[in-house]
Amino acid sequence: MSSQRFTPLIDPFDRRVRDLRISITDRCNFRCTYCMPEEGMKWLDRAELLSFEEIARLARIFVEYFDFDGIRLTGGEPTVRADLPVLVEKLSGLIIPSTNKPVDLAMTTNGSSLRLIAEDLKAAGLSRLNISLDSLDPQIFNLMARRNHLDKVLDGIEAAIEAGFAPIKINIVMIRGTNDHEIVDFATFGRDKGLQPRFIEFMPLDADGAWTMDKVVPADEIIQKINDVYPIEPVSHGPEPAQRFRYKDGMGEIGVIPSVTKPFCGDCDRVRLTAEGKFMTCLFAVNDFDLRAILRSGGTDKELIEQIKAAVGTKWAGHNIGKVNFIRPSRSMSQIGG
User: Fold this and answer.
1) Which residues constitute the domain of residue 108?
2) Domain contains 331
């Protein structure tokens, strides 16, 4: 496949699709309430997971044929997959045809294993890190993650800083009555550490089905609470999901992701690949497309390209959360990839 020729991938609503989220495992060493059930998960058999070679082949098609400029590795928890730096090295060498620059390769992680692997990931070519951290209080952290690992996550953040990752974004799922009193604490934490908090509205992807609208902390409320203590101003941005704000005193920035109260579907440029090779055009998609079947039946790059095009041709306008026609996905977040 020539790296000099590419075809932009355009969905039915004239949105350019150029960001690929790749889940590399459905397993996780946490059991976060908004993502997984406490017990009873049926894990994929190892043979069902895409191999590193299969992931790399699909990623190459997205980058070289469709000019994708961003790839994010997700899970489950991606660091539980053995030999992760090997995959990072395979993907970090991909070159975006339109710019002749390396693809922006990021990863979302709970951070608990970063002390062991951060330097290796940086050396392999990982560009950026998002680290999930939903509370700075050990009791609340344990309540939300169902694991008593706050110290490991905080140490993992330090390891990421020491390895040279910058900026480091901290993903915080805000849930009314659980951690919403920590909004300003997280802003202070980010300012002190040089980190970028990303406050995420609670979405109906929890395995227990406990989501209700009254548990959502609206982005506007988060912004107001921070602005009352640390004055902020908006930063212009592209199709990324976060609305960004910078501190007026120059001490960094924050982001809010208003997935529920102010959906950003109209600017969506993302598609997803599950750990077992199902291609999804939306986090809330109810249909998927089996790319693994094509890979393992000896399919050609052309066949994969045509399936990807056909799938993106079904991408819908938005997810309809909070509306009567909203359909809750059958998979939980950990089975899709965050």
Assistant:
1) 9-336
2) yes
pLDDT digits (tens, 9 = 90+) for 9-33: 999 999 999 999 999 998 888 777 7
Report pTM: 0.89
Least Cα distance to 179 among 206, 151, 139, 210 occurs for 139
pLDDT one-digit tens code per residue, 72-86: 999 889 999 999 999
How far apart are alpha carbons 235 and 216 in whole angstroms? 24
Say which CATH number the domain at 228 has.
Answer: 3.20.20.70
Which two three-digit tokens encode residue 228?
Answer: 């009352």
Q: What is the number of structural domains in the chain?
A: 1
Where helices occur in the chain by DSSP H, the ranges are: 52-60, 84-92, 114-124, 138-145, 150-163, 183-193, 219-229, 291-296, 301-312, 333-336
Residue 76 lies in a domain: yes
| Nearest residue to 107 via CA among 135, 87, 137, 136 | 87
